[in-house]
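ASSEMBLY PREDICTION REQUEST
Request ID: AP-0331
Submitted by: J.K., bench scientist
Number of chains: two
Total residues: 534
Priority: normal
Notes: Please return the full assembly, not individual chains.
Input sequences:
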Amino acid sequence: MTDPYFINFRSRVQQIQAAMAEENIDVYLGSRLRTLSWVSDVFCPWRSFVVIPSQGMPALFSFVIDAARIADETWMDPDHVFGFAPMGGQDQIEQIADYINDLARGKKIRVGIESGMSNYLPEGNLTHYEYEKYKSAIANSEFVNAHTIIDRLALIKDQGTINRFKKASRIVDIGHEAVFEALKDGGWKGMTETEVAGLAAHAMRKAGSEFEWSFTGGNEIASGYRTGYTGGACTPATRKELESGDPLMVDIHSMYRLGLGDHSHNYFIGRATDRQRWHADNFISIVEKTLETYKAGITPLDLAEQMMDFADQGGFADFMVPGFEHGIGMMGDEWRIGLNDGPFSYWTNPEHVYRENEVLICAMQYACPEEKIGFRYENPIVIHMDHCEALSKFKLSVDEIL
Amino acid sequence: MTSLVYLSDSWRDEVEKRLKSALSPQRMNFITSSMSNIYTGCPCGEDRFLFFAFEEGNFKAVSTGTGEPPEAEFKVTGDYEVFARISRSEMGSQKALMTGKLKLKGNMIKALKLASVADRINKVISTIDTRY
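STATUS: Completed
Returned structure:
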C-alpha cells in the first residue's frame, strides 16, 4: 500500500539542483531549519547544514552528538551524514569547507547561502561569523544569497506534506478532547496552566506526536487577564491556577513526521457574563467569516481589510489584531507567508496572492485588556480554488466549563 | 633488543607483530576500516605516513612510507613530534585532536566507533623501544 505521507525527497533535491543551474550556483549551503527539514526529512534541533551539489546526493552536517540519530532517520544514505565536533579537521567550518572544496576541485564556484532575518528565533540563517569563516575557507568562491530557491519550491505543498499536516491536526484534536475531559465537571479546580499544557502534551504524545513544536513554550495556555494582552499572541503556560470567571485559551501544537498541528480553542471557566459572551460571539463570528473568505486569489491585505470592516460593523474592531494568518511549512518553516518580496524585507508581503495548495495558519487574536478577556484562533488551512479547508476539526465554540 | 628507528621498516615489522599478537579481532571490535597517519615536519625533511587497514578486526595491512599515502577511510594529519609524543604515551590522541594538534578527515560518526580502538593501538605501539 502506498504511504499517504510519502514525500519524494529525491525529486525535491533535483528541483533544487535545477534551480541552482538556472542561477549558476554550483553548491547550495543550507543552514535554515526549514531547509534542513524540507530536504532531509529529519528534525535537526542542533546547528546543522546541508550541502547540495549541482548533481547527486546532498550531505548533511550536524553536531556530532545528534549525527548518528539523524543518519538513522533521514532518507539520505549514512555516508552523506556527518557529525562535527571541536577536533582538528572536524569543526563545522573546516569539515564543510573541505567538503565543498573537494566538490569544487580547484575551480571557482558560486555558493548559494541563506541570509536574512526572521521573527522566528530558530530560523537558522548563516551568521556573520559563519559567513566570514566559510568565505575565507572556501577558496576562490563567490557567495550569493539563494534562500528563495527553497522558499519558492516549498510554497505549494505536495499531497504527502498536506497529509502529514492533516494527521498532526487529528492529533491536536485528540489533545483538545483530553483537555476538555480533564477540565469538565469541576476537574479544572486547582489546575494550573502548565498542567493543562502537560495534559494536552500527554494525550498528543500517546497519539503519536513527536513534539509540541512551538518555540513559544510548547503548548501555550493562558487564563484570566493573560488571555487579553494587547496585540498578544504568545502565551507560554505559567503556574497560574485557573479561576472561576476566567477565559481560558488552549493553544496546542503537535508534530507528525515534521508536519505541524497548531490549533487554539477557547473556554470560559464557570458561567460567562453577558458581556463575556458578547465578546465570545464576536470572536466566533469573525473566525467563521474569515474561514469563509480564505481561497485562492485573495491576499493577506484583502482579507485583513474585509475582516476589519466586518469587525467594525460589529462594533468590536478595537479588540482585533489586524492580522489573520501566519506561515507554516515543515518543521522550522513558521511565520512569513510566501516569498521575501514585500515592502518590508523578510515580513509577509501583504499583496501575496494565495494559490491552491498553499498551507497557512489561519490565525486571529481578539483582546480586550481592560476587561481581562481575549481569545485566539489558530488552525492550519489548505487553500483551494474556491474555499479553504480547516485541518483541525475540533468544534468552533467558546464553551463554559462548569 | 636494540631500539628501533621510528617509522623505519624494522619498526613497522615490530608494530605489525605486536598488534597482531596483542589485539584480537574482538579487541578490535571486528571493525573494517582503514586509517592513514600523515606526518609533517619529519626529521628527514619529507612527509611520511603510517597506514593501517583492518578487516573484521584483523590487521590486513600496516605500512609506512613517504609521499602520497594509500586511500583510507580516515586521514589523520599532524606534526611528526605530535605523533611521536602519542607513540611515547606522552599525549593521548583524543587530546591531540581536541586541541587541534591533529586533524582528522573522515566521517566523525564512524570515527567515534574507532576512538577506543585507536587508543589500544597506540598503547601497543608505545611498548616498542623506539628511537625518534
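REVIEWER COMMENTS: The mean pLDDT of chain A is 97.
SIGN-OFF: pending second reviewer
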